[in-house]
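retry 2 of 3: previous attempt timed out while embedding adenosine-5'-triphosphate. Reduced batch size to 1 and resubmitted. Inputs unchanged:
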Amino acid sequence: MGIFDYTPSISFQEYEPSIRLFDEEEELPIHIKHKRRGSDYSVRLGYKISPKRFWTQPYYYNPRRRGVEEGKVVLVVAGKGIGKTNTLRNFVQAHYRTTRDDSIVVFQEKRGDLDFLRHPSPERLVEMNVEPVRLRSNGKPVQRYLVPGRNFKIPLQELEYSALMAYIGKKMGQSIADRIIERAWRDVRSRRDIRRFRIKLNEILQNYEEDPYFRTMQASVERFCELLEYDSLIETERDNTFLDYIDREIINIIDLSDIGDYEIKQFIVSQVLTMMERHFKRTRSFIGITEAHTYCPEEGMNPAKQAIIRAVTVLARSYGWTVFLETQSPHSMEKVVIENVDEVFILGYIPDSKLNKLLKTLSVNLYDLVSFYYLADDIGKGEGIYGNVLEPTRPYIIKIGLSPVG
Ligand SMILES: Nc1ncnc2c1ncn2[C@@H]1O[C@H](COP(=O)(O)OP(=O)(O)OP(=O)(O)O)[C@@H](O)[C@H]1O
Ligand SMILES: [Mg+2]
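retry 2 succeeded.
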């Protein structure tokens, strides 16, 4: 018998006021099951029990309490099919329901994983003791898929030179025009679109007319511009910024499921994080990264890893961001990232070889509970161990509920 079979049978959203509540700003009574964005404060995502005192407490998620200056890094570790994505969905919809214009950006690795208009079947919800919820925004769709290369591109003026070189540099190779390109790149206003950028480049090129390699430089510069222009991930025609793609009122899902190449994914993840930092400084935001170990592996450096390290060490702390990371392979994840985790969920069973490094590195002591917990003969989906740096020596057993949306 599973440890959570003792859970009292209360409905999932039972803490909410009975039938109606008031929308703060409009003062209109709205029906509880059709809440608008930002009309409630915290959402119950599951239950937790302390192994020392055996009673069940609800586990709430409340983004408002994580104000600026105290954002959080959340790490979910679980084997295949145990409930990582379900946890992410729970967090996203809770964030969406309880805030008004926090920017929510999540990366989707598997098609259909994050669809917030899809609902589990009514039978399944009854079986899991979950009350259905409908996400609602004021006249807008709830979510938007951004497919890189199609309806999502990285604007020229937002690009980081170093990340661009890591990405496009291979096609181009070292060239004697690098200096010229870098100089032109520094002037952000001259790269609002490719036309202006070409003018700027030519302006600088003119200083080298006497150079014996002038023709080669010219050719390299031209080749660089062509590579930019033909790259479907980069917006070179229109004078766009990140804000032309991201809508702060809805859930922005960046769909990486069609991209097989890890370097391309890394480039996109790093650029999105950099753009978020540029535009959402000091505003609460939610960013969800799945398969986190592929972006911040233990060894080597890539632009995404740099960006994630910055997100967990600086952005989450200083700007009140929630950085949500999900992985099956905590053993191959960068240490600095694990060290900065505030909240950790270890769901289902994870073999020792994968757990050792994680347990040694986390700022929460989960050792004792882990060995005790694995004695349970039946660990269900979404069940596991939970630790929070606020209570570093008090780990919990947790059960995350089935996400009512998505
Ligand atoms: N907390 C939960 N309660 C009940 N069922 C759950 C729970 N979490 C997950 N499930 C069930 O398990 C299935 C797989 O869950 P989910 O997609 O979240 O796993 P995952 O860890 O992301 O898997 P993958 O490794 O394939 O990405 C879900 O479709 C759902 O039916
Ligand atoms: Mg998943």
